[in-house]
Write a structure and sequence with these properties.
Layout lengths: L1 E14 L8 H8 L8 E14 L10 H16 L2 E2 H4 L10 H13 L7 E7 L5 E4 L3
Parallel strand pairs: 1-3
Antiparallel strand pairs: 1-2, 2-4, 4-5
EC number: 4.-.-.-
GO molecular function, one term: 6-carboxytetrahydropterin synthase activity
Cofactor: Zn(2+)
């Protein structure tokens, strides 16, 4: 019997959407206000969903504290109150769109999880704009 456990987290971060190899005008045409050279920020909401079998001894799929600690070290400590373009190495050459941020978070969290678990990351950039990534 497979069950999915969800853990919510929150972080604030600034970013700028642009490509270094494009002109300012092309970046502006594609990314609009998100191309602000002075950056802009979001209050991101993250939902990490872990699916697996219920352990008959503990009754858990995963101890939520384990998931909480992984999210804290791999996401919150790494991204919170940071400029993603400048301070987070994963975005040195990767445009920090919501899609790319979700994939980076997935890879960081997945690397710390037992491989038996299926992971899905949902990242809200705003209450109405969000992305989901499950490694597929």
């Amino acid at each position: 019997m497979k069950v999915t456990v969800h853990r919510k987290a929150h972080f604030n971060a600034a970013h700028r959407l642009y490509r270094k190899d494009w002109s300012f005008e092309k970046n502006d045409a594609v990314f609009g206000l998100c191309n602000n050279p002075n950056f802009h920020g979001h209050n991101y909401e993250l939902i990490a969903s872990v699916t697996g079998e219920i352990d008959p001894e503990t009754g858990y799929v995963i101890d939520v504290k384990i998931l909480k600690d992984i999210i804290k070290s791999e996401v919150e400590d790494a991204f919170d109150h940071k400029n993603l373009n400048v301070e987070v190495p994963e975005f040195k050459d990767l445009n920090p769109t919501a899609e790319n941020i979700a994939v980076v978070i997935y890879n960081k969290v997945k690397a710390k999880l037992d491989p038996k678990f299926h992971l899905e990351i949902t990242l809200y950039e705003t209450p109405r704009n969000f992305v989901t990534y499950s490694g597929e």
